[in-house]
Specification:
mainly alpha, 24 helices
């Protein structure tokens, strides 16, 4: 059957996808920029502090003094995106993507194939997953022997971030809890340090990852349009020609090292030697859980894969705009966290402590897990943060978990599992992917919203059932 016949097949398919497209159009029309939600969050927290009797001076002092509390963590999260982008756009990875693009044999398999690879890569780095998935979707769409819906491919490429990103190694909540230097002092006193052995690498977390990946893949496969409903990249007016930029010729002797592979190779050797030393002298989980080590390896890997400093810096320049949202939002989350925990009212209690008492009143086990998951998902609809809002939620959520004897590592994972849900509806974190695909958010949200409808009940069931398999372990507070 030729391409034209495939396009002319009349296969009915509407339902929830049409509803989701309407919802996407509505959110695009009425939702302001995510930064507005962060600003509104600061105001809302300040009003809440006033409501419990905190003085205006205490509130403004908390705001100003806490604004830069998370400077190091803000840079770390921006580097997660930047390093992922740089690695994904390197020539060796680009060639691998072209080879992978020719594996699927039909349209629906192509969509589910992109979803599987995007989610698998996301376990290593969610920033890498976005760019890798987008480039893979474009490579498949360029095939002349396959007619695939470009919107479904794009939505599948987003599943790394939209479905499972926070269950992987670049989860900002798990990374923060595993890195003593990144944990705010008030939170450190509640949780101590939680390495990946208590969060990401528990069998319950890995089982959740497997279930959600399977569910996502099945939905992506069977929701892909067929026949006349297919809209290709050409139908959407997208140019798929990825002509490489012309490299500027060397014009002076001083540029020799900029075009040489010598320094990147030496930097790679140093990094490899350091990594081997770390693995030989420290517990493996400690090495894997270190955010600084993770970023160092990915940054130097990007340098080595691009070959020369000049090409590496060109890739970095393209990656920087994708970090803008993190750079301007995370200081506001730090300010919110400071107001929540430091501006005390009547009885010497902060807003954080009042919220902790509320969650504690719910009780432990399944009920606590489900309420925390719902709360996290709802808040994420309005404050898309890539995990930054964990810094806002963590003080009272983790205190509540301690009060009801809920395992603290699993509480972090409850947050991580639920944190991905809002990304299936709110298009904020689609922005880097949309830039690669040259599409609008409304082109993808119809498919991602369909995923959300299935994910929500499954997520709530998993956090409830698996939460009952844990024992409470009192935190070890470091000196």
């Amino acid at each position: 059957m030729n391409t034209m016949q495939l396009k002319q097949q009349d296969v009915p398919q509407k339902g929830l996808a049409r509803l989701a497209q309407w919802l996407a159009g509505w959110t695009q029309k009425w939702f302001p920029d995510a930064y507005i939600f962060a600003l509104a969050g600061v105001v809302l927290v300040a009003v809440a502090a006033l409501a419990i009797g905190a003085s205006p001076k205490a509130i403004v002092d908390s705001f100003g003094n806490g604004f830069w509390d998370l400077t190091a963590f803000t840079l770390q999260m921006a580097m997660v995106v930047l390093t992922g982008y740089v690695v994904a756009t390197s020539p060796p990875v680009a060639r691998m993507i072209d080879r992978l693009a020719h594996i699927p044999s039909n349209a629906r398999t192509a969509v589910s194939f992109v979803a599987v690879l995007a989610m698998s890569v996301s376990f290593l780095n969610w920033g890498l997953s976005l760019i890798f998935g987008g480039l893979l979707a474009r490579a498949i769409a360029r095939r002349k022997d396959l007619v695939v819906d470009y919107r479904a491919l794009g939505a599948a490429a987003f599943m790394g971030l939209g479905a499972v990103w926070a269950l992987g190694l670049s989860s900002s909540a798990a990374q923060l809890q595993a890195t003593k230097a990144s944990i705010p002092p008030a939170l450190l006193k509640i949780t101590g340090v939680l390495d990946f052995g208590t969060t990401i690498f528990t069998w319950q977390s890995l089982l959740t990852l497997a279930v959600l990946m399977l569910l996502t893949t099945v939905i992506a496969h069977f929701s892909a349009p067929r026949g006349s409903a297919i809209r290709t990249a050409a139908d959407l007016g997208v140019d798929l020609d990825d002509r490489p930029e012309d490299s500027e010729p060397r014009s002076r002797p001083g540029e020799w090292l900029e075009y040489s592979r010598i320094l990147p190779i030496l930097a790679g050797v140093l990094t490899l030697g350091w990594l081997i030393s770390q693995v030989l002298t420290l517990p493996v989980l400690s090495v894997v859980s270190s955010l600084n080590a993770y970023l160092l390896v990915f940054l130097v890997l990007g340098l080595v894969l691009h070959g020369t400093p000049r090409k590496f810096l060109q890739a970095v320049t393209k990656a920087v705009p994708a970090t803008a949202g993190i750079l301007v939002q995370f200081p506001l989350y730090a300010a919110m966290a400071a107001i929540l925990t430091k501006a005390t009212g009547v009885g010497g209690l902060s807003v954080s402590e009042h919220l902790a008492h509320f969650f504690t009143s719910i009780g432990g086990n399944g009920g606590f897990a489900v309420i925390i998951a719902i709360y996290t998902a709802v808040l994420g609809m309005f404050v898309p943060s890539g995990g930054g809002k964990w810094l806002v939620e963590a003080p009272y959520v983790m205190q509540s978990a301690t009060d009801v004897n809920m395992n603290l590592g699993w509480t972090v994972q409850i947050y991580n599992i639920a944190e991905a849900l809002p990304n299936l509806v709110n298009p904020f974190f689609m922005l880097p992917l949309l830039a690669v695909l040259k599409l609008r958010a409304r082109d993808l949200v119809g498919f991602t919203f369909l995923q959300f409808l299935f994910h929500l009940p499954v997520v709530l069931l998993l956090v409830w059932l698996l939460g009952m398999t844990f024992q409470f372990v009192p935190p070890v507070i470091p000196n």
